Records
---
Amino acid sequence: MPIGGPQPIPLWQPGSRLPDPAPASSTGGAQAGGAARGSAVSGDGAQFLKELQRALEQVNALQIQAEQAGQSLASGSVDDVARAMIAAQKASLALDLTVEVRNRALEAYQEIMRMQV
């Protein structure tokens, strides 16, 4: 457990795929770590992780759609400016919501870390 707060969360990169929650590995040590990780994320935690990953993939899809709409608009292949603007706004709102959820989760984590046991 890091001292001094949570580790920074890497930012999403366009075209990147979200990592699997428990990647498979062929090494013994990594398998033990994967098994421990798998057991740490089970039950309701696994379901939450799956839902979180699904939500992030939806945000990613909206970002890709907005990028494609912007490129089509810039190249002149689309005449419907409103459609491109709507796609950009959807992506922007989804990203803002995602960042806000992340900030709230980090605040909750920091609050838990400040608790005295």
---
Amino acid sequence: MQTTTAMGDALGRYLDLTSQQMQGTARNMANVDTPGFKTQGFDFEEVFAQQLNDGAGAAGLEGVQAPMQDVDGLVARPDGNNVSMDREGLQLAKAQMQFKLGTQLLKGEFATVMSAIHMDSK
């Protein structure tokens, strides 16, 4: 997502990471019955902070994938699969709330920009 302000770029990156988080959760859910499959994910806050500190902006990070890793500390079933639908359901709900927050903040950012544009035309 390409936007025009630093805040808009950060929000765009936030939404991209949230989308990747949802995709990872969907992949985990899709493999709940795959023997030996290990739940994967990434630390959202750490990756987001790292990307903000890189200073590349959303445009420079477009297409960059968050590093997915096996999630430690989960109980594996006898077939080696450790996907928990309860955990994944919570992860999906969290990602949905993050996405809704991000879109509301981005909407406010665009409203501010539009307000500034309209102030110039008066």
---
Amino acid sequence: MDKIPILRMGQFLLVTIQIDLYDRLALNLETDLVSMVHKTGARGVLIDISAVSIVDSFMGRILGNIASMTRILDAETVVVGMQPAVAITLIELGLSLTGVHTALDVERGMALLETKLGPMDLMADEDDNSE
């Protein structure tokens, strides 16, 4: 798999990572996601990592970078579905994921984005048919 799919849902982007990321794939995701935020004007990014069982300092740094880059582009990032072992590893590595909001699952993550940004505007897809 060379790319992680990025789905647009109104003013939000949804990324579901179904495999453990290797470095090149993570870098591609970072580039693709930041480009997609710029291209679509998305206001929120939700990254589901529930299928990710291994994380290292590089992966933690990539998540932080994505949040920082999207924030500069006026979008909030929420990471959902983090496994307890991943959370423990991130803390043991000393990674605080500054600027990354977290939620237990996709439903709570979407609610968090809507709290921060307002209700999801599904009509945004119809306004921009260039996608």
